[in-house]
Amino acid sequence: MPQILVVYYSLNGNTRQVAEAIAAAHDAALELIQDTVNRDTGLGRPRSAVEGLLGLRSSITPPKHDPAEYDLVVVGTPVWAARLSSPVRAYLSQQRAALKRVAFFCTQGGIGGKWALQSMAKISGQRPVARLIISARHLNTPVAGEKVAQFVSEIGMD
Ligand SMILES: Cc1cc2nc3c(=O)[nH]c(=O)nc-3n(C[C@H](O)[C@H](O)[C@H](O)COP(=O)(O)O)c2cc1C
């Protein structure tokens, strides 16, 4: 059985929910990307949007799991300003040499996921084996359930 690591960042819990479902389906290791920025202040959201828009990398703490030890690393991000979040941008930039195979997912309000996933492929230098975009309004509905199940099935194939 391939060893799978699911790595994600989540500000409000949506991406966490999807990451946990994917990890549970494969009994995969799970890692939350943590950064050193307090985004709970009044300026936290606008700052995050600007970081997404400008393609900035935030300062993240060292990961607990070494991605080089996994056959497949699944990376998930919220969409910020139609781009990937700055903590996930930092993670992919730092770990790109350690990634053997990747799959990407994102959660979004409604638009931008496609571009976020395209950027993730570019930054990691990897073509993902599977992609998943979940809109927040579909969380906890059959729509999300089916999309996650499809993704889980795709990443389970050798
Ligand atoms: C700073 C910021 C910028 C966002 N920009 C977008 C966007 O451009 N397009 C979109 O569809 N949703 C956008 N959203 C909504 C989030 O992508 C969406 O709610 C996502 O599921 C949040 O994931 P999380 O709960 O894991 O943080 C934005 C949210 C935040 C906080």
Account of the protein in words:
By secondary structure, this protein is an alpha/beta fold. The protein has a single domain, classed as Flavodoxin domain (Rossmann fold). The chain is built from five helices and six strands. Strands 1, 2, 3, 4, 5 and 6 form a six-stranded mixed sheet that branches. The longest helix has 14 residues, at 142-155. The mean pLDDT is 96. The site of flavin mononucleotide has 23 residues, from helix 1, helix 2, strand 3 and strand 5.
What is shown here, in short?
With 158 residues, the protein is an alpha/beta fold. Helices cover 38% and strands 20% of the residues.
Q: How are the elements arranged and paired?
A:
Elements: E1 4-8, H1 14-26, E2 29-32, H2 44-54, E3 72-80, E4 83-84, H3 86-95, E5 102-108, H4 113-124, E6 131-135, H5 142-155
Parallel strand pairs: 1-2, 1-3, 3-5, 5-6
Antiparallel strand pairs: 3-4
Helix pairs in contact: 1-5
Bound molecules: flavin mononucleotide.
The site of flavin mononucleotide has 23 residues, from α1, α2, β3 and β5.
CATH class wording? Alpha Beta
Report the span from N to C terminus. 9 Å
- Tell me the CATH topology: Rossmann fold
Bound molecules: flavin mononucleotide
Count of beta strands: 6
Task: Extract low-pLDDT stretches.
Answer: none
Could you say what the CATH architecture is? 3-Layer(aba) Sandwich
Order of helices and strands: EHEHEEHEHEH
Count of distinct structural domains: 1
Percent strand equals 15-25%
